[in-house]
Specification:
Helix content of chain B: over 70%
CATH superfamily of the largest domain in chain A: MetI-like
Radius of gyration of chain A: 23 Å
CATH class of the largest domain in chain A: Mainly Alpha
CATH architecture of the largest domain in chain B: Orthogonal Bundle
Order of helices and strands of chain A: HHHHHHHHHHHH
Radius of gyration of chain B: 23 Å
Oligomer: heterodimer
Strand content of chain B: under 5%
Shape of chain A: globular
Number of helices of chain B: 11
CATH topology of the largest domain in chain A: MetI-like fold
Shape of chain B: globular
Number of domains of chain A: 2
Largest sheet of chain A: none
Largest interface: A-B, 82 and 85 residues
Structural class of chain B: mainly alpha
CATH topology of the largest domain in chain B: MetI-like fold
Structural class of chain A: mainly alpha
Chain lengths: 292, 285
């Protein structure tokens, strides 16, 4: 009697775990089924090679490239901002800073990641863009630059925290050997510790890229909604995510081709983040416990 | 000798560069918060909190937005907490070596990396269309619950992992069953860590905008939601809507609403950090 009760409980718990699998299957099913009917109308070749994306205009084109360059541009700016700062923070906290300092600063940095992204979007549009316009006069009021920069600030803690963990996990003997040879902290940090922890640092950067690609509100607010094929950071661009927002806010009838475009855009986004996440997973598995 | 000096200079120069970088993000955030307070603080008064949305910025309030946020917070908590904690307990206490558990584990790592807007597409097809919830609070809460489920599961597992084996063994020794041990011993011992994770996850849900836009949450809702099937708006949606308008009055409104939203997220994060510190002190068994 007691045993059946235990079995029922275990079953209920296992079912809760299964929900997460159903979520994944649901995401894949939704994206694949809706984009499947999209690709029955629009050929995959057009989708990947057409340089115009105008599903909401009368002259319709379905080339994802402008959305990809928009996404690529904002992501690249964000990573170029966050990577040097994030790695410098990680090196400083693990190799230079006193222990107490490190302990209290790590959670403080997490605050940057706790701020809602719509707030960052407001910041990019109303503070950063006007400020940058003083320096770059022909900067549009919507542009990839300030959206990317602000997104970079948001993902600093992602890179700094994971990279610091990787540096912190290195055995002490490695550093002591370097100091014993007369190296400075800087030399030890960048010639010994960072190369030794490189897999962890690379993982942090890949995850940050995945995060930046999927980020929505900052780019929807500050980068604009013009799907133009450009790599000029001063221009307004539209990312994949911003496009999904644009269509969702409008009155696109359910089941129409324009409605299905958000799923075609969504599956493109999903593939990118899925591949990046799995690469990071693979690196983590492969290089884990190198020093144990 | 000069080389040696040069090395020393580089070494201490990097120290200051490191300090600068560490505080860079926080300084930018401080500038931003100062900016927002300067812009929005004078706008916050009783009317702002109790007025319905309006076309005129000076008359518009956030009543529907913050009540919507409260609804979403409550419903998302009701849906996600039991599921997340149960799944965490299963993975940590039951499924140590079986195949299902390891598949679920890899799957959760993957789900945590899926962009939030993709959850919006899932919610749109499953909850809004297939289950016919429409753009209701319920559809929004289910979507956000799935989004934060991985965070709660991981936090539950971490907290359970920190509970020493001896506690479980003592309970088994007294003749308790596995579930009795979990319910009366392990879960209460891990509750501080689990609660921290739950609050952090819910604070994430409060700040989410993108998935709610996709499932069709509205920017303009002229009534306060009274049941889970009502249409709704939330604070981030209201902010997004105001930011996109040209009149300066709405930008001031957005700044004022951001102050309220940041207050909510910072209080939730503060409680979580406080609980974590308290629990970590206690947990040194």
């Amino acid at each position: 009697m007691k045993n059946t009760g235990e079995k029922i409980i275990e079953g209920a718990l296992a079912f809760s775990g299964l929900i997460t699998i159903l979520t994944t299957l649901g995401i894949i099913w939704v994206l694949v089924s809706e984009s499947f009917s999209f690709f029955q109308v629009v050929s995959v070749t057009d989708f990947l090679t057409d340089t115009e994306w105008t599903p909401l205009f009368t002259q319709k084109h379905y080339g994802i490239l402008p959305l990809l360059t928009g996404t690529f541009l904002t992501t690249a700016i964000a990573i170029l901002t966050a990577m040097p700062i994030g790695i410098a923070i990680a090196v400083y906290l693990s190799e230079y800073a006193p222990k107490n300092f490190r302990k209290s600063l790590k959670p403080a940095l997490e605050v940057l990641a706790a701020v809602p992204t719509v707030v960052y979007g407001f910041f990019a549009l109303t503070v950063v863009t006007p400020f940058l316009q003083n320096i770059i006069p022909d900067l549009g009021s919507f542009n990839a630059l300030s959206a990317g920069l602000v997104m970079g600030i948001m993902i600093i803690p992602m890179i700094s925290s994971l990279s610091e963990d990787a540096l912190h996990a290195l055995p002490k003997s490695l550093r002591e050997a370097s100091y014993g040879m007369g190296a400075t902290r800087f030399q030890t940090a960048f010639k010994v510790a960072v190369p030794a922890a490189s897999s962890g640092i690379i993982v942090s950067i890949i995850l940050a890229v995945a995060r930046a690609i999927g980020e929505t509100m900052i780019v929807a607010i500050a980068a604009g909604q013009q799907p133009i094929l450009t790599l000029d950071p001063r221009d307004a661009v539209e990312t994949i995510t911003a496009y999904i927002v644009q269509v969702s806010l409008g009155d696109v009838p359910h089941g129409s081709l324009a409605y299905k475009t958000i799923f075609a855009a969504g599956i493109t986004l999903f593939i990118f983040t899925f591949v990046l996440n799995n690469i990071s997973f693979w690196i983590k598995k492969k290089y884990q416990e190198k020093y144990d | 000798m000069t080389k040696l000096n040069q090395n020393r200079i580089i070494d201490s120069a990097f120290k200051y560069f490191g300090i600068f970088c560490t505080f860079f993000g926080l300084i930018v955030l401080a500038i931003f918060i100062f900016n927002i307070l300067a812009e929005g603080l004078q706008r916050i008064d009783w009317d702002f909190l109790t007025n319905l949305p309006s076309r005129r910025p000076a008359k518009a309030g956030i009543l529907t937005a913050w009540t919507g946020t409260a609804w979403i917070l409550g419903l998302t908590a009701i849906i996600s907490i039991p599921l997340g904690v149960a799944a965490g307990v299963y993975l940590e206490e039951y499924g140590k070596k079986n195949r299902l558990a390891s598949i679920i584990e890899i799957n959760i790592a993957n789900l945590a990396g899926v962009p939030s807007i993709i959850y919006g597409l899932l919610g749109l097809e499953i909850f809004v269309r297939t289950l016919n919830f429409g753009g209701s609070l319920l559809a929004g809460a289910f979507t956000l619950a799935l989004l934060i489920l991985p965070i709660i599961i991981v936090a539950t597992r971490e907290a359970l992992k920190a509970v020493p084996k001896s506690l479980r063994e003592a309970s088994f020794g007294m003749g308790a069953t596995k579930w009795q041990t979990i319910w009366y011993q392990t879960l209460p011992a891990a509750s501080g860590g689990i609660l921290t994770g739950i609050i952090l996850a819910l604070s994430r849900a409060v700040g989410e905008t993108a998935p709610l836009i996709v499932i069709g949450a509205l920017a303009y809702v002229p009534f306060v939601a009274t049941n889970p099937m009502d249409e709704f708006t939330v604070l981030p949606m209201q902010i997004f809507n105001w930011v996109s308008r040209p009149q300066h009055g709405f930008v001031v409104n957005a700044a004022a609403a951001i102050i309220i939203l940041l207050l909510i997220t910072f209080i939730m994060n503060g409680i979580a950090i406080y609980l974590r510190n308290k629990w970590q002190k206690k947990v040194n068994w």
